[in-house]
Every structure is written in structure tokens, then in C-alpha cells.
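Weekly modeling sync, notes
Attendees: S.R. (lead), two postdocs, one rotation student

Agenda item 3: backlog of single-chain predictions. S.R. asked that every request posted to the team notebook include the full sequence so nobody has to chase files. The rotation student volunteered to paste the first one in as an example of the format we agreed on. Action items at the bottom.

Example entry:
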Amino acid sequence: MKALLLLALLTVPVSAQVSVTATAGTAGPVSYTTLKGVFDAINAGTHQAAVTVAITGDTTETASAVLNASGSGAASYTSVSISPVGGTARTISGSLSGALIKLNGADNVTLDGSLNGTSSRDLILRNTAYQFPTVIALASLGAGLGATHNVIKNCNISTGVPAGVGYGISIGGSTPGTQGPDNDNVTIQNNAITMAPTGIYAAGTSSMSSGGNDNLSISGNSIDFNSTLPAIGIRLGCALNSIVSQNTVSIQTTDYAAPVAISLETGFVSSSVTRNTITKIRNKNVNGYSGRGITVGTGTAASALTIANNLIFGPLPPNPWVRLRPNHREAACLS
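Predicted structure, as returned to the notebook:
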């Protein structure tokens, strides 16, 4: 009887949360317990050509899930598609200083959080680290070696409650929040980003096509932050021919620094910022600077920006009975 019980315990299957199929290499389906395990297998050349990753259950990542560029080492794929399946929302979570998911020069990756191919948000991505959490990082490997033609859409993205710097989505260099060249043709669409001190960060290294982020599209996202830290909803620099449209931003903080809903910084040129809604941009620190809806500091008089039809509520001063500083309360700021 004891022998039968031991055999039964030994033969209990390990739960698999991710299923992978591919059109070359090991076709599958092959099961994995983490997204990192999947990316490691793709990096090793196990799954090749068009790779489909189905999130069938919740995963807990104990290290960053890093997908390298095709052609780097044994990796050989034409596309990677990641989405939840199974009729209920799925969660990929971890507590990591750095990125939960990193596209390390990887191209043609689609992360679609919808279960049914619509605009439903059915995939939760959460990095609960106290120090330097980032949920998704797109990292350039150098000039002409950016993470390109990637799509992140229909996801619920959260950094938990960080102690300082943190990013919902970072598009730049190897370290989140740093510049990186040529992360071109990236689409960030219909994501709900919460508790990230910087909701979306994207910065190339030049306002020219060589080095800049070409054709960046940030549309239909919801960014909500309410905490004690300095905060920026969408922070962009060194990009061109880009679109920032129909995003909703709400920020409230008690930090001294002015919170900013949309910050257009050095090298952000030849682009449009339209039809965004800023529902709240407020600093409740009575000694601090109040919110700024849209700031423009591109570093050039010929930035060729179209900023139109944006709706900004407020911004409210920290204390309406306190005399405002000259730059204390701004719907839009150009410098």
C-alpha cells in the first residue's frame, strides 16, 4: 500500500502554464512552467520560424524572461506571438529588480493580452519589486540593432508599489529608462498601466532616423498613478514620425516635484499628439509644484509637432489657498 502511494505521488504531473508551437525546429506543442523557460528555449534554437506562445495558466517568474534577437546565438525565428488562452484571465508575475519581460533586440514580437482577438484585456503583467521594477523593456543592442516591429496591446500592466524609479513599459537601452537607438515601428496599444512611476518611456539617441525611434505608436492606453513618488505618465524623446493618440492619463502624487501627464523631450519631432485625455494631474504636497498636462521641450524650434484636441482637466494646485508659484500650474508648457 505504501509503495502504491509513493508511486502515485511520484507520477503527479507538473502543472504547465505555457504551451509553445512552432513551424520549424521542435514543432510542439511543448509545455513550460514559465515564460522565461519559453524564451530560453527559443534563444537555444529549440523552436524556430513562426513561434506561437499560449499562456494557459498563471506563471511566477523568478528571473527576467529575456528574448534575444533572432540570429543571436542559436535563436532563429521570424515572429513570436504571445497571448492568453483558456477562457479566463492569466497572470505573469514576479518580483524582480529590472524587467519582468525583456525583448533584447528582438523583432516581430506580438504580445496580445486578449483571449478572443478583440480589445479585451485578459493578461495581467505584474512586477512587484520594491526597487527599480519594470514590467516590459524593449532594449536596443546598438545603432541599427533596435527591438523593432513589436506590438504590446490589451494588457494590464502594474509595478505594484515601488520605492522609487519604475516603468510600466520602457523602450530604450539595456537598462530601463535609458536611451537606445533604432527601436523602430513599435506599437503600444490599449494597455491599462497602473502604479508605475513612469507609465511609458521611449527614447532613442537622435532626432534623425538613424538613432531615433521611427514610427512609434502609443494609442488607446490608460495610465493611472496615485502614490507618493514623482510621476510621468508618458515620457518621450528622440523619436520621429510618431503618434500619441487617445490615451487617458490620471496622476496624483504627494512628491515635491511636479507630476507630468505627457512629457515631450529632446529630439521628439515630426510627430503628432492628439485626442488624449488627462483626467487628473495633481500634486497634493502643499509645498510642492502642481501638475503639468503636456510639456514640450524638444530642444529645437523646428520640431514640426502637431498637438491638437487634447482634453486636460485641472491641473489642480496642491492647496488652493496657497499663493501659486509662477510655474506652479500648467495645462501645457513649452520650453
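Discussion: group reviewed the output briefly. The longest strand covers residues 47-55.
Action items: rotation student to repeat for the remaining queue; S.R. to check formatting next week.
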